[in-house]
Automatic annotation (TrEMBL), chain A:
The lineage of its organism: Bacteria, Pseudomonadati, Pseudomonadota, Gammaproteobacteria, Alteromonadales. It catalyses: ATP + H2O = ADP + phosphate + H(+). Belongs to the helicase family. DinG subfamily. GO terms for biological process: DNA repair. This is ATP-dependent DNA helicase YoaA. Its EC number is 5.6.2.3. It is an enzyme of class 5 (isomerase). PANTHER family: DNA REPAIR DEAD HELICASE RAD3/XP-D SUBFAMILY MEMBER, REGULATOR OF TELOMERE ELONGATION HELICASE 1. Its cofactor is [4Fe-4S] cluster. Keywords: ATP-binding, DNA-binding, Helicase, Hydrolase, Iron, Iron-sulfur, Isomerase, Metal-binding, Nucleotide-binding. The keyword Transcription regulation does not apply. GO terms for molecular function: 5'-3' DNA helicase activity; ATP binding; DNA binding; hydrolase activity, acting on acid anhydrides, in phosphorus-containing anhydrides; iron-sulfur cluster binding; metal ion binding. Gene3D superfamilies: P-loop containing nucleotide triphosphate hydrolases. Residues 18-280 form the Helicase ATP-binding domain.
From TrEMBL, chain B:
This is DNA polymerase III subunit chi. It comes from Psychrosphaera saromensis. GO terms for molecular function: DNA binding; DNA-directed DNA polymerase activity. InterPro entries: DNA_pol3_chi, PolIII_chi_sf. The lineage of its organism: Bacteria, Pseudomonadati, Pseudomonadota, Gammaproteobacteria, Alteromonadales. GO terms for biological process: DNA replication; positive regulation of DNA-templated DNA replication initiation. Pfam families: DNA_pol3_chi (PF04364). Gene3D superfamilies: DNA polymerase III subunit chi.
Length: 641, 157
């Protein structure tokens, strides 16, 4: 049986194998076959496997093929909704057609991606806002609701991606009436989940997976125990996402929405209880007032320290009082309507959470806050998720496969496996098929100011102007901070004869479309542009990075890991900060060469790479590109592309 | 103070791709030696003729394999406390115990160097180079250095 299966793997990747016959232009690579064999082995032995597969290995096929051939129940989780769709609509059908055409597959997204018929009806009848744009969006949604079969908001193109209507026509765990809902028979969320339950292979995203694992309330949780194989693509994101979900948070927005819902129910059904309205308005006011105690501009910080300041202590008292008042009043209305019962449950939960996030003396957690223009969120993040996650993996009867182009640091997986608490995981490292020495040049310019020097921003702008001239546009400028990106954008916009695209002016997807269409554009981006951006060919010849992507020391998750590291008696810079920066940098660098024929130049304007001893860890972890420090050499190379 | 003159034989050539980068056998072996001294936790100053040569040495060190990485800086870059290896055509501001000489004629700042207790020099394999090395040898001896000469071991590349 085993021999047969391994035989079938090499057969299906062979020159005239099933994949080559079904997929035009398919050519298996040795690394791909190696990975498929390792995945097959992990599935057979119910083992854990971490695979680093460099760009261009073809890792998607390498895990899909053995997963399909095994004939078991499989969950594949990807980094984002966009990648989820790409996998489900592009890669999966090809492999399925080649190997198991009858297999049932399903795409499952988070609740907020599906139309809620009940909320559309309620909010359509009593619109919470009465301005024309809101009303016209609602009517567009209603028109679409009669046409859609699965209610996936992604197909809804008649309104803007960020329309204000969306929260009113989708549901949250909080406001879902679940079994009491009159529209339950047609519920799109329920239908999507039912389909998922029946499928052999489900495609989800990491957020959905962990929301479910941690909270057991997104509905496919009952699935995980029955799943034989769990595969994470873009698995380098797992430690951060898992930490987020194994923690807890309290958001003023949830309280605000609850108050609005109670007021609406008072208007609709409970007019005899004016106290209810009053209590909800008081809590709404007090929670919004508490936001005003934080700085006006969005910020994040340590909640343990912040919660001790006098104005915060007062604000907490006011909110608690209002919570108690609303609790007492709402209790009197219990069982009068389904909506008010649901509101009461939410109220109890939110009140409990609020009390919990204010008990900041608990050990083993990091307490932090962040604010947006109108709201604030208080977070509790575990210092380490290794015990929790490791236990889930151990107790499950499944194979867990983690793959990404960037999980190792200095040829070593320990950093990753210890974060996740899976020390016994098998590991495999697959090189990239690219000839980096000839395809890519890597420069750290001479005499560049140190990154904390104010002169660095101007120096970066001036160098960008020079190099973009040589590359004739076709450049990504990646930044570690939004502030520096904006400064550089201002400095170069008028000086450059190529179109300049800046993150934030429109959606990421549209910016990338414009970048490809314009052919000689320059794109400026931070965070999300370091990952998952795939521009192939000569549209991209130059990637400039402003500095090594060390996470900001006030980053709460980083603080938590540093604290945990110190508790273990280890040195945090070596064991936490450098590995994190190495993985981020590998992601950013990965944007440049996407194909065997791609060529390009990487310029990192951070002299620390050359002058600090830890530069060695970075150099050992990056692809082996042709290195230089000489800008004339860089320009000559660029002009030849 | 001790000074070692490393003798380059005709066996010791720079790697093939070095020529295009103007890297002579002398420069290459000085960089290899620098890598070795850095691994012994020594702080180095590589004394070069001028900025052009500094850039050649800088680029060559930067191209060393990642597992022979040598953190280094040119004057005016890097941390204020300096990196382990400095390349300079002028006397360094930092105290550095090890001096690796790449200048043909003895730099006139020799007397002003701070804290140097180890001098490395080279005897190239060409006539002009040899004559210049002999001259430096003589001057260092007059200055009271303890001089030794050594063949570069063949095992080093």
């Amino acid at each position: 049986m085993n021999i047969e299966l391994s035989d079938s793997i090499s057969k299906c990747f062979s020159e005239n194998g099933a994949l080559a016959q079904a997929i035009p232009g398919f050519k298996a690579r040795q690394a791909q076959l190696d990975m498929a064999t390792a995945v097959r082995g992990a599935i057979k032995d119910k083992a854990q496997l971490v695979v680093e597969a460099g760009t261009g290995t073809g890792k998607t096929f390498a895990y899909l093929a053995p997963a399909l051939l095994a004939g078991k129940k499989v969950i594949v989780s990807t980094g984002t909704k966009a990648l989820q769709e790409q996998l489900f609509h592009r890669d999966l059908p090809l492999v399925k057609k080649a190997l198991r055409p009858m297999m049932k597959t399903a795409l499952l997204k988070g609740r907020s991606n599906y139309l809620c018929i009940n909320r559309l009806e309620v909010n359509g009848e009593h619109p919470p806002y009465d301005d024309p744009s809101f009303l016209s969006d609602i009517s567009n949604v209603r028109k679409w609701s009669s046409e859609t079969s699965d209610g996936d908001i992604g197909e809804l193109t008649s309104i803007e991606e960020n329309s204000r209507v969306l929260p009113f026509v989708t549901s949250t765990v909080d406001n879902c009436l679940s079994k009491d809902c009159p529209n339950i028979a047609d519920c799109h969320v329920m239908n999507a989940r039912k389909k998922a339950l029946e499928a052999d292979l489900i495609v989800v995203n990491h957020h959905l997976f962990f929301a479910d694992l941690a909270l057991k309330d997104t509905g496919f949780g009952e699935l995980i125990p029955d799943t034989d194989v769990i595969i994470f693509d873009e698995a380098h994101q797992i430690p951060d996402i898992a930490s987020e979900y194994f923690g807890e948070h309290f958001s003023s927005r949830q309280v605000f929405e609850l108050c609005k819902d109670i007021q609406a129910e008072y208007q609709a059904q409970l007019r005899d209880m004016p106290q209810l309205n009053k209590a909800a308005m008081t809590l709404e006011k007090n929670i919004l007032d508490m936001r005003l105690v934080f700085a006006e501009d969005p910020e994040r910080g340590n909640w343990r320290d912040k919660s001790k300041s006098d104005d915060i202590v007062n604000a907490i008292q006011y909110v608690l009082k209002a919570f108690n008042f609303l609790y007492d009043v709402t209790k009197l209305a219990i069982s009068r309507t389904e909506t008010i019962d649901n509101c009461f449950e939410r109220l109890v939960q939110l009140k409990g959470k609020f009390e919990k996030v204010n008990q900041t003396q608990e050990n083993g957690y990091s307490y932090w806050f962040d604010t947006t223009k109108r709201h604030f969120t208080l977070h509790i993040t575990p210092l380490s998720i290794a015990d929790k996650f490791g236990a889930i993996v151990d107790e499950s009867n499944s194979s867990w496969i983690f793959t990404s182009a960037t999980v190792s640091v200095d040829d070593n997986f320990d950093h990753y496996t210890s974060l996740l608490g899976i020390p016994d995981a098998r590991t495999q490292m697959l090189g990239s098929p690219f000839d980096y020495q000839n395809q890519a040049m890597f420069c750290v310019p001479r005499y560049f100011p140190e990154p904390n020097d104010k002169a660095a921003v101007r120096a970066f702008s001036e160098l960008a102007l020079e190099l973009v001239e040589a590359s004739r546009g076709r450049a990504f400028l990646l930044f570690t901070s939004h502030r520096v990106m904006t400064l550089v954008a201002k400095m170069i916009e008028d000086e450059i004869k190529y179109p300049v695209l800046v993150q934030g002016t429109t959606s990421k997807r549209l910016l990338l479309e414009q970048f490809t269409k314009l052919k000689h554009a320059v794109l400026l981006g931070t965070g999300s542009f370091w990952e998952g951006v795939d521009v192939r060919g000569d549209m991209l010849s130059l990637v400039m990075i402003d500095k090594l992507p060390f996470a900001s020391p006030d980053e709460p998750l980083l603080q938590a890991r540093i604290e945990d590291c110190k508790l273990k008696g280890l040195e945090p810079f070596q064991n936490v900060q450098i590995p994190q920066a190495v993985i981020s940098l590998k992601q950013g660098v990965g944007r440049l060469i996407r194909d065997v024929t791609d060529k390009g130049v990487l310029v990192i304007c951070d002299p620390r790479l050359v002058t600090r001893q830890y530069g060695e860890v970075f150099m050992r972890s990056l692809p082996n590109m042709k290195r230089t420090r000489d800008l004339d050499t860089v320009k000559t190379f660029l002009k030849g592309l | 103070m001790n000074a070692i003159f490393w003798i380059l034989s005709d066996q010791q050539q720079a790697p093939a791709h070095a020529k295009a980068a103007n890297v002579t056998a002398h420069i290459h072996y000085a960089c290899v030696l620098a890598a070795d001294l850095y691994r012994q936790n020594k702080k180095l100053l590589i004394g070069v003729e001028n900025q052009d040569q500094a850039h050649i040495v800088d680029d060559w060190l930067w191209q060393f394999e990642a597992d022979r990485f040598i953190p280094h800086n040119l004057p005016g870059e890097g941390p204020h406390y300096g990196s382990p290896v400095e390349i300079n055509w002028e006397p360094s501001q930092q105290r550095r115990g090890c001096f690796v000489n790449m200048c043909q004629t003895l730099p006139d700042y020799v007397g002003k160097l701070k804290g140097v207790n180890e001098w490395h020099d080279f005897v190239p394999n060409d006539d002009v180079g040899k004559a210049a090395a002999r001259e430096r040898y003589k001057l260092l001896k007059q200055a009271g250095f303890n001089l030794t000469t050594n063949q570069i071991p063949d095992s080093i590349v």
